Amino acid sequence: MGTLEPLSNLSSLISLELQGCGEDLKCQGLWSLLITGGHLKELIVLGSPSFFADWDPNPRRALEDAEGGEEQQTQLVSSTLWELMTGDIAGLLAAPVCRFLSSSFTKLTLVGDSCEGMVRFSKEQEDALQLLSSLQELVFLDFKDLQQLPAGLCNVTSLKMLSVHYCPDVSSLPNDAFLGSLEKLRVCNCSKELKDKCRGLVGTIPDIWIF
Questions:
Q1: pTM for the model
Q2: I want to staple 8 with a disulfide (CB 3.0 to 4.6 A). Which of 32, 69, 84, 132 is the partner?
Q3: 4 burial level (CB within 10 Å; 0-12, 13-18, 19+)
Q4: 3 state DSSP class of 194
Q5: InterPro entries from the entry (predicted)?
Q6: pLDDT tens, residue by residue, 41-86
Q7: Superfamily assignment of 5-54+76-210 in CATH?
């Protein structure tokens, strides 16, 4: 199965988990599960590192832009998805995808096991992440080489919980402006520097868990 087209008519599907389906699996067919009429709330995609690559969920907007039309004249569709876990960082963190997900999206888990050599997020990826205006919980998991979290997190004002697990080279959090909105902070199997800085936030963030 190279796409999700065989599943596209499962309009009552609420949760979908795809693991180890390989590099060739693409998200075509997912759109109909996520718009009005579909009910997909939870999606896990692991082991398909190009799943979201080059996906534009609102192709009409792209077409009108190319033809010189005005974007506000196009009614953009929005997603039903609440939660997503994925290892396709590059494909997901693109403006068209994040804009599509933004209205309903509350929890995102980014899995970095296929991101060897990635030390930071690009400016484009940080900007796309900021489009997730409903995001409340964000998890960074298993980024072996990542040295810093996206600085733009301070602009995700809806965020209530941040978790950083198995990211040994991350030594700090984004700037202090970001910390004011957090209610929960989870740090697991990370560097001593990061753990020490998080301990210094006790009393600033209501619920901190470090181990």
A1: 0.90
A2: 32
A3: buried
A4: helix
A5: LRR_dom_sf
A6: 999 999 999 999 999 887 654 434 444 444 443 445 778 999 999 9
A7: Ribonuclease Inhibitor (3.80.10.10)
